[in-house]
Amino acid sequence: MSASMKSDVAYEKMADVESSLLKPHKYSRCILVITSLIAVVLLLFSLQTFLIPSIITSGLNKNPPIMQTCTDTCRLVLLESIPVGMEFNSSVGHPSIYQAWRSLLSEAQSSLDIASFYWTLTNEDTKTQEPTANQGEEILQELVQISGKISVRIAVNTPTDKQPHHDIQQLINAGANVRDVNLRDLTSGVLHTKFWVVDKKHVYIGSANMDWRSLTQVKELGAVIYDCKCLAEDLEKIFEAYWFLGDSKIIPSPWPSQYTTAYNKDTPMQLAINGTDSGVYLSSSPPSLCAEGRTSDLQAILSVISDAQQFVCIAVMNYLPTMEFTSFKRYWADIDTELRRVAFERKIHVRLLISCWDSTSPLMFPFLRSLASVQDSKSNLDIQVKIFIVPSSASQKKIPFARVNHNKYMVTDRIAYIGTSNWSGDYFVNTAGSALVVNQTTTSSSESTVREQLQAVFERDWDSSYSTPLNQDSNLEQICAM
């Protein structure tokens, strides 16, 4: 008999006692005493078997995961994909995402887990004959080769009928385990995340999709972290959540304890990155996919902006204070309001570097102009916006969905944030994304910090010939036609 049933039995027996008390009986006093004692015993028994274990279990469930000291000597390398034909008059540069992916594949010994939006790594996928697709095709072949040798798991957004399936099918045939994650049914969003976990100790996270164009025809930014088991294990929990959703088709509430984390914006992981003491955590979106302890991606962004002491620099493809993909129009100003607040209340200097390409929504620009108008030297108000254009030759313009700055990062005077989401409401309310947040306010190494390196990338792009200031008089047709 279950605890709840025992409790019901006790309740029924107490009701019987009350009923007998209303009936006259020659042994009423004895019966009263005896039945009362029985009722008390039964009640105590039911409390012991039902309520007390429930209280104990409840208390255990609320205990946060134990924070452990991370002794790993983690090495983080910023990565970029610079589109073919783009050249910067700058010494700032980083290894390519292609190089990092090949390095990770060559080092993989036991497992590779990839969270991805879609797969188009070949010319066959894009119906093109572009020589620069060779890097993506090489990556796919190396993935095929290792899929029969080590554990390869891929969580991918459920493809539409129009999307190619060749890459995924090749990997399945080679031995990879693939699960479609149907977030459209679960949250009305998509799985937009882009990260790798290799051997549960190496990590890649960034803006690049599993797409050959992300290696040679689209400007991307990401990071690879080597020999960092602590961080890899925490990112693996986010992957396992996707893996669970691909099989269960429901979102648990709350998430089971194995998905919880001790590391977030309030209690970041303390570890050494490139010899510098760092506070690090991983954020995730949407909130319904965040297990206990996990900071949502929106809260991470707002926290980083609020933490800034001098400046906030943002480089994202899309910036819209609206819900971008819903059938109804809805204003969504969480990030926009915070940028205006810190600029006004704390005199933080804010700069946004936003992309323009064939798929850009014209609706972005009225909102960006509004932000750029927050300028007043007397009041020390300073929000600036520039539009970044990736130039294209006649042949490059024929490549579908290419030649764009796809970056998704933010850097302040204190923190580096590297994400996988564009900045409009949908990406934080119902679409799955993730981000790496690194705080290196205390320098203990002669090597430049991750934050300093990311700031240098932003400054290079901001000052380059590919960036044009946006103001009230800007001619967008001229700017976006570069």
Automatic annotation (TrEMBL):
It comes from the Eukaryota. It catalyses: Exonucleolytic cleavage in the 5'- to 3'-direction to yield nucleoside 3'-phosphates. It is found in: Early endosome membrane; Late endosome membrane; Lysosome lumen. Coiled coil: none annotated. Keywords: Exonuclease, Hydrolase, Membrane, Nuclease, Repeat, Transmembrane, Transmembrane helix. It is an enzyme of class 3 (hydrolase). Belongs to the phospholipase D family. This is 5'-3' exonuclease PLD3. It comes from Silurus meridionalis.
